[in-house]
């Protein structure tokens, strides 16, 4: 036991001696390196830069940064190097201590040229590769990936060996591979490995690296690179499909929100509410007003603004809806075409009311913190507001489905949809059901407005932009049940987004319209039509 | 009852109305051109241009009334046919500019030179010829209506479904025409016209002539509509309006009737648009906007659908009101008034002005049986429809 302790002690002593010696050697190397800057020649300065970086001295980064900014000064007479720190104080580069004495008379900055600047940048990249800050290390790795500077190679090797964070390690390896691929002196085996690394990365940047290989790359590597490019392109095409599908789902959910209220009122009452878009707009303006009140009175509540706005928008739009039904539409039953005109007139009035009250310009509605930002999923970027809107739409859809399925109101609404006269004879107050349906449909439009305020401009014309698309959803999906609207909305949304890259947004829309016209040849009442023997007069 | 439909169409009311239109067609240009400006009877060129515009709108309203008032097809996209006719005329006028454009290119219109188009697109060929342009004015809207109507009516798309689809049609066309690469001038449309058939479009004489021609076109349109609604065909149309299924069960090919009248109506709208363009001096994609088409429908509703004179009066009255209010201090309230008009007419005056007057007259005559019955002059044509067939879809 004793012997072991002695040996241990000896080991510790030996180690500490070694450390001291090492740091002394490092300090010597650093001092020698600084001496290069005194020569006032570009070549010597390059030597100095490389030597300073190689010394690994704690002040190395500061010195190189000062050199880059033209703050590195030297005095040939005193053979000392200084730099000015951010506070414009003169610091002795050797010790790192502020220089107490007056500045030497012959103090001059170390001169730079463009070649030097490039070398400095690379050197700094190499230095930050070892930075204790992970974000800085990642940034440095990405910078090297872009610059493909061979000078950074030794630093990269060191950094890869030391790195513990997997993500940064991968970035470093990829940067290393990029450098290797553009380095003439690298061996063919290394280059082949590098191609494999690029292939694994598999994004646009990797494609750019592989496509721009230097002309003197060995043919085997070139061949492999071409294979890798093809493979990456296939994967990217797949991801693009995923991306389009996601955009389509996102658009579809917006359409669904806007159209579902329309589908309910059309299904139950057989009337098209042309002012439906204006209900959406009212919902969006409700959100705006709620956020304004929160901004001025209770700024801490901002993240909850949508939770306050959603029920309010439902109530306001729903109330206006009931008013419209009781005030106008109930007198127009049996005259669906005239209802169309009357509600169009209402939409003009509502737009003008909002324009008069809030002005014609777009209103600024903010995203709460939990709705802003995005995350990467594979090679696509998903924004939180789109994601939340999709989830919110599905929630609203589920709630509505449950309402129709399990509540008394839903039962009566379905009865009136199927056969109004029979429902009335069974004692259902069809007039009351109509009013409630219209209120419900309008209220949902109001909720849609809350969601749309997060992704679209809030202006008096907000509703008009969605109304025709919503009608298309209703025409396509049919009014028999809500699933038709769901399928219709997502089909149209996804079809739109897939057509856009080929045909452009406008031609895509026209193509969709033509397809709908052709589609209703087969199914004039939409995908999910009500079955029955009823015939129109 | 005479065999020849045109003569049968000429009952007393129609003759009086046609004579009135003829008088306007002659008097307005004369009062503008021959009466000195100082005279109280002088009509300014502004007035002529304005009323020329109204006359074109009246023709559009007439075409809508023919399908909506008599056949129950509510098209919310008739502005599309109007605008297509207008574009056909605009293309002719563009080709007439020739080297007088900003870029002085003898073939290409200015906007194509500006967009670096090397040559004239194929669909612009032939528009330097006036007869060809005239043909296209009728043919393009007619063909579109024929194809669209064939698809729509064959699959029995009716009621609000049809209205929505027509609205989507004009919306899609608007989006298309807004694009520069469509070759119709993008959102600036076609403008800067110089002359038509060698006459300067700006000159008072040309304007007066255009006014007279527009009124003549309106008279012809009125006569054609009158001939249709007074014929057996017209009676079938009214039957389709009031009970489509029943008419079908009686053995009529409902689709064919609808398709015929829809296509004819589109051609009339195209002519209206073609006459409109040289008088206002511009055609751009906003003419396709769904709002315009719906506004045209309300003219008919105000005047009285199912009454041809009503459609014409409605178009003139509403548009005069629009000009009057939007140029005065009441301009910010115009949209309130227009919106209110939609609501008020559908709720309170479902027969429209002319329809209500006819209704009161009929009732008055029924109470005073000494007078001759109004049913003598063509019951089907004279009687405005009931507010709407009392039926709900999906019931």
Descriptive account of the structure:
The complex is a heterodimer of chains A (537) and B (395). With 537 residues, chain A is mainly alpha-helical. Chain A is built from 19 helices and 6 strands. Chain A has helices at 2-35, 42-55, 60-68, 114-128, 134-147, 153-162, 166-181, 188-201, 204-211, 219-269, 276-296, 305-327, 336-358, 384-406, 408-418, 420-425, 430-452, 462-477, 482-522, and strands at residues 72-75, 80-84, 90-92, 108-109, 374-377, 380-383. In chain A, the strands form 2 sheets. Chain A has a 4-stranded antiparallel β-sheet. Chain A has a two-stranded antiparallel sheet with strand order 5-6. In chain A, helix 6 (153-162) runs antiparallel to helix 7, helix 10 packs antiparallel against helix 17 (430-452) and helix 10 crosses helix 18 (462-477). The termini of chain A are far apart. The mean pLDDT of chain A is 83. Chain B has 16 helices and 4 strands. Helices cover 67% and strands 2% of the residues of chain B. Chain B has a two-stranded antiparallel sheet with strand order 1-4. Residues 373-383 and 387-395 of chain B have low confidence and may be disordered.
Reconstruct the topology from this structure:
The complex is a heterodimer of chains A (537) and B (395).
Chain A: H1 2-35, H2 42-55, H3 60-68, E1 72-75, E2 80-84, E3 90-92, E4 108-109, H4 114-128, H5 134-147, H6 153-162, H7 166-181, H8 188-201, H9 204-211, H10 219-269, H11 276-296, H12 305-327, H13 336-358, E5 374-377, E6 380-383, H14 384-406, H15 408-418, H16 420-425, H17 430-452, H18 462-477, H19 482-522
Antiparallel strand pairs in A: 1-2, 1-4, 2-3, 5-6
Chain B: H1 5-9, H2 12-33, H3 45-71, H4 78-97, H5 110-114, H6 130-154, H7 159-178, E1 190-191, E2 195-196, E3 199-200, H8 204-230, H9 232-242, H10 244-249, H11 254-280, E4 282-283, H12 290-303, H13 308-326, H14 334-348, H15 352-367, H16 379-382
Antiparallel strand pairs in B: 1-4, 2-3
Helix pairs in contact in B: 2-8, 3-8, 3-9, 3-11, 3-12, 3-13, 4-6, 4-11, 6-11, 8-9, 8-11, 12-13, 12-15, 13-15
